[in-house]
Amino acid sequence: MARVLQLNNAANWEQVYNNSFTAVKLTDDRYAPIPEVVLPVLFETHVIAAYIDTDVPEGREWDYAGKLYQRYQLGLTIGGVPEADNIAVRAMQLNRIKLVVFPKLTPNYAVAFKFPKWFRTASLTVWQYTGPDYDSVESSLERIENLLNQDSS
Question: Residue 126: helix, strand or coil by DSSP?
């Protein structure tokens, strides 16, 4: 079963999040890490793209930009608080758009980002795929059913 997506069409993407973050300066040489960012969006599409940028200090070469977590509700509660769990974790690369195709285990989910503790600033942009998303086997079966329905009319 092959999944068919039209990823190369810009009209099939919708930007859902764009924000910048700054670490809090504690002393002249110490910073509190940028806290984990949970997007205020529930995704229904299981294909997203994300981009992370930061100011890299002169003389340094950074590639790692943190982790992306797919989160969903378990439907369980402990101490009156609903629990969430991570379905998938993806490593992010700096200054590269990361395509993420999640498994279709739940109808919707949330996404969180954890930046490296040494980042002083971070910019995050996230898009969701809104184009056609179908399995070629399902598509073939639908075409056969449509042909059969046309013949019986």
Answer: strand
